[in-house]
Structures are given as C-alpha cells and as structure tokens.
Amino acid sequence: MKVLITDEISPEGLQPLQEDPRIQVDVKLGLTVEELHRIIGDYEAIITRSGTRVDSALIQHAKNLKIIARAGVGIDNVEVDAASKQGIIVVNAPYGNVNSAAEHTMALLLSLCRNITQANPSLKSGQWKRAPFTGHELKGRTLGIIGLGKVGGRVALRAKAFEMEVMTYDPYISEKRAEDFGVKLVSLEDIVRYADVISVHTPLNDETRGMINAEHFEGMKNGVIVVNCARGGIIDEAAMLDALDSGRVTGAAFDVWSEEPPTSDVLRR
C-alpha cells in the first residue's frame, strides 16, 4: 500500500507505518493543489492534518484511494459525502489531542486574565510595573462552554478545579451528561447573557459556522473574555474585532482562524 502524508506528523506516529514492509510511506509537505491532484492517483491512502483540504476535486483525481485518515479530531477539511460516494473510508483520531486542546484553552484563558503577554515584554524592557498587570482571578467567575464534547468536558473539569461556575450550551447532550460534569445545561442566549468567559468547543459545520455573531456580542456582559480553540469560522471574526474595539470584549484568545494562515486585515489585527 502506498500512503501519502501531506501535513506534519510526529515521527513516532509514522514509525509503525514505516516499519511495515507492506507499506510505502511518502512524506510530501507543502504541495500545491495542482501538485496534489497530479500525484494523488498513485496512492491508496492519504494522511492529513488541517493543512490539506480533501475536497471533491481532489477525490476525483484519487482513482486508487481507499482511505482518508485525519490525524486529529475534526474532519471539516474533508468532504465526507464525496469520499463515501467513491467508496473511500474516512477516519479520524477523536481522542488524539483532546487533553492538549483543553490544557491549551486554560493556558490562553489564564494568560489573558493575568496579562502575561503584556507583562513579559514590559519586564524585558527594564520596567518594573505591577499594578497594570494585576489581572483578576477565575474563582467565582462564570464560564460558558459552547459544546460539551470531549474537549469541552475536559475544560469544564479544569475550570471547576479553579472554582469557576460553569454552564454549557450543547443541544446534543442530556441533562445527565451536564450533571456528570457538575455544570448547568442552558440555552445559547443564557451563555451570551451571563457568562464572564465564553469558550467554544464545537466542530465547524453548516450549523456552527458563524454561530457567534454581532448580535450575540451586543448581548454579552461588558468585559467578557472569548476563547476559541475549536475551529476558525465558528465566531464571526469581523464582529469579534468590533467587540474588542468597542470594549465590550476585554480580551479574546484564538488559535484557529477562518483563513489559515491568516492574511486579511481583520485577522492580522
């Protein structure tokens, strides 16, 4: 079997494939769309992360492809219906980075609350200022989690350890699941209205694209913090920037964008 790797995968992850004499592994990073279309017909499997879009156009060129493997949780960069019509199996790694994503969410939140990114260059420049960077505690504040899945659930547990009040919006879970995490199941409107911190943990699809927009920002508390470690495009980024400029949102931490790498003026700001 010939396997094409188009995004960076750790050597440990590739080792079992490379040690199997039945499998030929070709690592080809940074391919253009045209280059990928030209060579994909030679392969029976492709392994990607989020950097490669496996769309219907690519699948049409993949005459021998049997499996598309996404080394990660989300499969929004794969057109699953198009693959299924060609009899191609699509698989992912649903638990691959869930702990990392949850910890990263908390790291970004703590960095915002404690003004780490502002204090660090201030100290390195020789200043000795404390008051501007005091920040505030998480204890007693309300966290609104949108999507109580594998990552969202872990964020909830970690936030509870910081003695936060946690509520969640997720139309696909039961009251019992929310109770198991010690959180309150509420509407999206209640998240918007009452949360001091809003953290998004949903896949990107037609239902979630742009689900947090200008109207939602207008209804949020003054000084709210918004975190997105899920997928770019779930939050309207132009509306997010307007809310930051107006002061309605005091801080935003994103590690995902609707365009990656970000090039537009909105995303650069």
Automatic annotation (TrEMBL):
Keyword match NAD: yes
Record Gene3D superfamilies: NAD(P)-binding Rossmann-like Domain
Matches recorded under PROSITE patterns: D_2_HYDROXYACID_DH_1 (PS00065), D_2_HYDROXYACID_DH_2 (PS00670), D_2_HYDROXYACID_DH_3 (PS00671)
GO MF annotation, one: oxidoreductase activity, acting on the CH-OH group of donors, NAD or NADP as acceptor
Keyword presence, NAD: yes
Family named by the database record: Belongs to the D-isomer specific 2-hydroxyacid dehydrogenase family.
Name this protein carries in UniProt: Phosphoglycerate dehydrogenase
